[in-house]
Specification:
Shape of chain B: elongated
Number of strands of chain A: 10
Number of helices of chain B: 8
Mean pLDDT of chain A: 90
Largest sheet of chain B: none
CATH architecture of the largest domain in chain A: 3-Layer(aba) Sandwich
Order of helices and strands of chain A: EEEHEEHEHHHHEHEHEEHH
CATH superfamily of the largest domain in chain A: P-loop containing nucleotide triphosphate hydrolases
Number of strands of chain B: 0
Low-confidence stretches of chain A: none
Mean pLDDT of chain B: 92
Structural class of chain B: mainly alpha
Bound molecules: adenosine-5'-triphosphate, magnesium ion
Strand content of chain B: under 5%
Shape of chain A: globular
Order of helices and strands of chain B: HHHHHHHH
CATH class of the largest domain in chain A: Alpha Beta
Radius of gyration of chain A: 18 Å
Oligomer: heterodimer
CATH topology of the largest domain in chain A: Rossmann fold
Largest sheet of chain A: 6 strands, mixed
Chain lengths: 245, 256
Amino acid sequence: MKNGPVIDVHNVHKSFGENHVLRDFSMTLAPGENLAILGKSGSGKSVLIKCIVRLIPFDHGTIEVLGEDVNVLDLDALDVLRARVGFLFQSNALYDSMTVRENLEFSLRRHWNADQRKKGAEAVVLEALTDVGLPHTVNMMPVELSGGMRKRIALARTLILRPSIILYDEPTTGLDPITSREISHLIVNVQQKYNTASVIISHDINCINITSNRVVILIDGTGYANDTYANLRNSNDPRIKDFFD
Amino acid sequence: MAQDRTYTKFLNELGDTTRFTLRFFRELFKRNQELEEFFRQCYWIGYKSLPLVGITALIMGLVLTIQSRPTLVEFGAQSLLPAMVSVSLVREISPVITALICAGKIGSGIGAELGSMRVTEQIDAMDVSGTNPFKYLVVTRVLATTIMLPVLSNLSNAIGLYGAYLGVNIRGTVSWHLYWTQVFNALSFGDVIPSLIKTFFFGFAIGIIGCYKGYHSSKGTEGVGRSANSAVVVASLLVFIIDLIAVQVTDLLGLT
Ligand SMILES: Nc1ncnc2c1ncn2[C@@H]1O[C@H](COP(=O)(O)OP(=O)(O)OP(=O)(O)O)[C@@H](O)[C@H]1O
Ligand SMILES: [Mg+2]
């Protein structure tokens, strides 16, 4: 498993009634890789990564995460696996009745490793907040934060469990260009510091340029193209060019 | 045709609720109890509803006494007033009114809270961080309502009986001591225990319905409103159904 892919999505099909969102979609993610998934709004990008952590069931196909088939795990085993996969929601999904500290501590209640236990929750929380550059917000409520800050806190909440994989659902959407760039660099820094593999869903070309090693373009529920950013940028295919203009 | 669909929807809903309830019992006995959240919920559920429950109980006791007096006077039986009022308060009025108030206040609160957490993907976020939101959100709340409703109902009994004492003394005088002697002579364990037991079921129904509706809220603000609303409607209805079953059971056991 050491050198095999950390995520292996094979011929996954997902439909909502008549709406076939994913049609035999396949992709793999190698250890330490930053894979960007590019696609129009409504093309099923969010559905895809929700399938990866089994938030929504899919119709057929297989998904293996860190060597385990997500469909055959029981709930407890799934929880253990999920703790190793970070998920950054498009809407951030911060727990709005809790302070930033409680938001971060929340996932620690079940899954923290011996090293973290030794350091204590407070130090672990502060370390995660420092990673995203917001240690001073520890006592604030989510409503008191700006959109960009919320995104960073959500990232800190994901980082606190030291995941091996992070799934980012449109990390820069709705942010101004400068903040978007900061978030993109933050993603790269995190990836280098903790040596995680990431899937970055986006339609922000700049973000993809900064963060990705490889890009998969999702059109009509299948992987239409799979190449590096530079190669796709120079492609003559009109359906690919659309994304870069 | 349209009716068919309504039946199907109803049966689906019933099946889902049953599955949800079974899951509650499965999760209840799993490791990692969320004690802190449970006590927090107990505190909120008891504390938030106490003023309303108290005021209603006082008024119910008072009004029931004032309205029963003329009939009893007609039969020359006004000395039975404390006995009659206390039995009806403890057996029926207090538990049911408390449960209805809680269905309105707690049921809608839980429905709206969990509903908005569902809609803003906070429950999904707990799910993907591997923290079992069912245990944290649902089990704690259902346990809290199940345990707090009997407590509230007993407080409501006490306050209602005090209200009745005031009612008795508006016309005519019965001493404090005599009043309570009459009340306790009238009440037997056969009155108190069944009524206590049914409040556990009321509490459980309110908690489970509120959580179910919130947890399965559909997307959007409208979905949250609908969860809160139907939590109240279904929970209130269930309170009456449980009451009906409880009265049959006590009857069969000869506790009347
Ligand atoms: N819970 C659901 N029930 C029914 N249909 C859904 C559901 N979730 C998503 N869909 C449908 O799946 C399709 C893909 O949705 P998805 O959220 O994955 O889009 P997306 O690629 O993430 O778009 P965006 O960039 O706007 O976030 C849409 O057509 C949507 O209508
Ligand atoms: Mg999306």
